[in-house]
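During the first year of the project, the team set up a workflow for recording each protein of interest as an amino acid sequence followed immediately by a discrete structure-token representation. This format lets reviewers and collaborators read both layers of information side by side without switching files. As required by the reporting guidelines, we include two representative entries from the current panel. The first entry is reproduced here exactly as it appears in our internal archive.
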Amino acid sequence: MRIQTPSTSYRAAIGLALFAVSCLIWLGLGVGIIGADGARVNLLYGGVVLIGVAGAFIARLRAAGMARTLVAMAVAQAVIGLVAVLAGWGLPWSPPAEVLGLTAGFVSLFLGAAWLFHRGAEGRAVAS
């Protein structure tokens, strides 16, 4: 039985995803993305993390499944940010531009990791 080592793209994707989730937890729970420090609405970002954990479990950390998981996380992140702005959550502490900017940043990180996972999955298909 031959054990394959993860590709560079896969390892980079894992690193980027863990960095993004760590920052999301720190900002969401510690500093607060929406509203003042400790605003309960920031607990919604726990749902994004739960999507990631559940997706990783279901995909068994395989690159193609992880790519889909990170896209789902990006969509959830975007929905939370858009709803927060449209509902006026966090005002006056978090202006809409701040919430949308942070949301766009996290969406970019999640989609970047998804792209790297996708590249890792393509590399596996070619190498097999």
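The second entry, processed by the same pipeline in the following quarter, appears below.
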Amino acid sequence: MTNAISPELYWTVLTAGLASVLWIPYILQRILELGPIATFSDPRHEVATKAPWAQRAKNAHTNMIENLVVFAVLALTIQIVGGGTSTTALAALLFFASRAAHYVVYTLGLPWVRTPMFLIGFFCQLTLLFAILAHG
């Protein structure tokens, strides 16, 4: 007997996979600026990068992690209570897409696009929350 992964968990796993590699551009920029020894001697990144895009990438990654924690709890709860619907599945897909877009536009420095991408992800979280509460 096998259990198929729900769409909510599938997109959550893909979001986690994406989040797991979003640190790479920032670290590569730090290596270019500081060299490998200085970069890895400063694990808390207290020496700021000179490239504004890299600092934005770091901030976008942090924001992704913060939002992924909330979404993952909601997606797991949907799975546990059996409350998944076509709406929650779509919300999970949109969460992944909006968070990927958020990272790109944040890194590029496009605040007028960044905020809507953030809000789409937030409304996806609310969609799962309300589905859980309605499920009872």
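For the second entry, the following points were noted during internal review. The CA atoms of residues 56 and 107 lie 5 Å apart. The mean pLDDT is 93. Both points are flagged for discussion at the upcoming steering committee meeting.
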